[in-house]
Specification:
The structure is a single chain. The chain is mainly alpha-helical and 317 residues long. The chain has two domains: 160 residues, UbiA prenyltransferase (Tetracycline Repressor, domain 2), CATH 1.10.357.140; 144 residues. Helix content is 74%, strand content 0%. It is built from 14 helices and no strands. The radius of gyration is 20 Å and the shape is flat. GO terms for molecular function: protoheme IX farnesyltransferase activity. Its main location: membrane. One of its GO terms (biological process) is heme O biosynthetic process. Its EC number is 2.5.1.141.
């Protein structure tokens, strides 16, 4: 890795800096998918949680997500300082000391797992603890800097929330819960690689072996297409198990067509190549932004069906 710039001049951290340590945008998606798992479990099994306990369980997921984010920022502060996109984060900018970030992450980890255990059960608490460890240690400290498959394998960390939400309600994790895991897992590579195509030079400068750096943009675009095809198939699995109904099927089917449209166009483009046209780079960014909308609407469809009594199974399955 190249030498890092000089340590920036110390500035006082604000409340906003400490919030940024928690990666709030990631936290919102994590919490949303956890809520979807919780609500879907209630709709499928008929089991319920006391509203207060459910709220505490969701809070525990949010705290756990924030804890993992703080641990990630603590460990990655050296490469964050090298990359222009991340150089203004709280630690490399000098707003928050590294020791405060790791202390915050560790304390929040313990509190989140304890709250989940008190509000629900040991299985949900254990899954939450493992997901924090997965992101903070397995992905951040090992995979991210050692393999171009870092996003693929590491994507498991972000795929656990709906399983945790399901386990909080039922105390078990049946096939339906793991289908929700798989949807998020296979969504992660095309989502993140779309961004990596735009920032591959930054990752190369920081010594991070993202796929566009190690195998080139062309290979990355092909992998994005292949993972999107797999995602499209897996996302329709809830229709076969009865987890998803007509609303889910229609919404997800349309979203899959749109996602595949983006993936094919990016595959045929020169996005990420040296000297790529601005339109191709813009296309990769559009796919990245659409992927966020995709995940939100897929899980929103499940929430609407099971929370509003609009779950109508598709005949023939």
């Amino acid at each position: 890795m190249t030498d890092a710039p000089a340590t920036p001049e110390k500035r006082y951290g604000t409340a906003g800096d400490y919030v940024q340590l928690l990666k709030p945008r990631i936290m919102m998606l994590v919490v949303f998918t956890a809520v979807a798992g919780l609500i879907a479990a209630t709709g499928v099994t008929g089991q319920t949680m006391h509203p207060m306990m459910a709220a505490i369980a969701v809070l525990a997921v949010a705290l756990g997500s924030g804890a993992a984010g703080a641990i990630n920022m603590w460990y990655d502060s050296d490469i964050d300082q090298v990359m222009t996109r991340t150089s203004t984060r709280p630690i490399p900018s000098g707003a928050v000391p590294r020791e405060e970030a790791i202390a915050m992450g560790m304390i929040m980890s313990g509190v989140s797992v304890l709250l989940m255990w008190l509000a629900s059960n040991w299985l949900a608490a254990g899954l939450l603890a493992f997901s924090i460890f997965y992101y903070g240690v397995i992905y951040t400290m090992w995979l991210k800097r050692s393999t171009p498959q870092n996003i693929v394998i590491g994507g498991g960390a972000g795929a656990f929330p709906p399983v945790i939400g399901w386990a909080a309600v039922t105390g078990n994790t049946p096939l339906d819960a793991w289908i929700l895991f798989a949807i998020t897992f296979f969504w992660t590579p095309p989502h993140f690689w779309a961004l990596s195509l735009l920032a591959h030079s930054e990752y190369e400068k920081a010594g991070v072996p993202m796929l566009p750096v190690t195998h080139g943009a062309k290979a990355t675009r092909l992998q994005m297409l292949l993972y999107t095809i797999v995602l499209a198939a897996i996302s329709m699995a809830p229709l076969a198990t009865g987890l998803g109904g007509w609303i889910y099927g229609v919404v997800t089917g349309v979203l899959n067509l749109a996602f595949l449209y983006y993936a094919v166009r990016v595959w045929r483009s020169h996005a990420g190549d040296a000297g790529a046209p601005g339109a191709d780079q813009k296309l990769a960014r559009s796919m990245f932004l659409f992927s966020i909308l995709y995940l939100f609407l897929v899980f929103a469809a499940l929430i609407v069906e099971h929370a509003a009594g609009l779950h109508f199974p598709v005949g023939g399955f």
